[in-house]
Amino acid sequence: MMKTGKGAAKLTLVQWAICTIAVIGFAFDTFEILMLPLVLQPAIVDLTGFAPGSAEYTHWARTMFYVPAFAAGIFGLLGGYLTDLFGRRRVLTFSILLYGVSAFASGFATSIEMLLVMRCLVFIGVSVEFVAATAWLAELFPEPIQRERVLGYTQAFSSFGGVLVGLANLAVVRFAASLPAIGAFGLAITEPHAAWRYTLMTGLIPAIQPWELEFFPPQVRQDLASGLLAQALLRLVLPRRRGNWARVRGSQPGPSPAPTARRRRPG
């Protein structure tokens, strides 16, 4: 472990893990937002049939950029209120699930209106998650210098999301024909191997990441803070049985129970 600055306290193992998770989260925020320019033209052509450059195409292209951003701005302002009302962990978790699942559902869009609604939900989830994540980090790092550096360095990695979404789109365009056909629940999809649909569906990735260490049991967090990685992993994997916990503790036996006095039989 290393110091974050002159006179600043060292980051613990759990704090390094939190910073790593935050970096991934902020990168995927940009990943979700910058996905739209890559898929906009083929999506509008596929869902509406309007030719690029026509008045109808221009109308929907502007709408797809403007309306989700407007919705994100409104809910971003409400993000602080929602975190105070429902708690940072809960808001953070559900906002990630919201934009991850909405991005995945965008790949099944059968109309331009459905795609617009899904993109609004994605932008809303990203904006609320950004507010909740920033507040969460500021709360976990109370020391001012350390907090400023953690927020600065983790949010700087958000620009890496543009690289990730570009690579994801390149991979999807190359292998779209060999990917499973998109079609479920009786949806009328004209091109089941459209690359723009697969690109949108990659937005599900953030919803399956292990975002918060707060979900770990207290014993696991204590083991991680003490550097007992093997013991923490065993606590997560093994079921909560007395014998298993004894094996986890190994050479660290707990206090033996106090002896109980025997009852004398009468007579």
Protein model, in words:
This protein has helices spanning 13-33, 35-48, 55-86, 88-106, 112-140, 144-156, 160-175, 195-201, 218-225, 229-237, 242-249. By secondary structure, it is mostly helical. It folds into two domains: 13-211, Up-down Bundle (Growth Hormone, Chain: A); 216-249, no CATH class. Helix 3 packs antiparallel against helix 4 (88-106). The protein is elongated and about 60 Å long.
Provide the fold topology.
Blueprint: H1 13-33, H2 35-48, H3 55-86, H4 88-106, H5 112-140, H6 144-156, H7 160-175, H8 195-201, H9 218-225, H10 229-237, H11 242-249
Characteristic terms for this protein:
about 270 residues; Growth Hormone, Chain: A; 2 domains; about 65% helix; about 0% strand
The assigned CATH architecture of the largest domain is: Up-down Bundle
Beta-strand level of the residues, as a percent range?
under 5%
Residue share in helices? 55-70%
- CATH H level, superfamily name of the largest domain: MFS general substrate transporter like domains
Given this structure, which CATH class of the largest domain is correct? Mainly Alpha
Alpha carbon gyration radius: 25 Å
Please report the total strand number as a whole number.
0
Distance between the termini: 68 Å
Q: Return the structural class.
A: mainly alpha
Counting DSSP H or I runs of 4 or more residues, the number of helices is 11
Largest sheet: none
Spans of at least 5 consecutive residues with low confidence = 1-5, 210-214, 239-256
Give the count of structural domains.
Answer: 2
- Report the CATH topology name of the largest domain: Growth Hormone, Chain: A
Query: Could you say which overall geometry the principal axes of the C-alpha atoms support?
Result: elongated
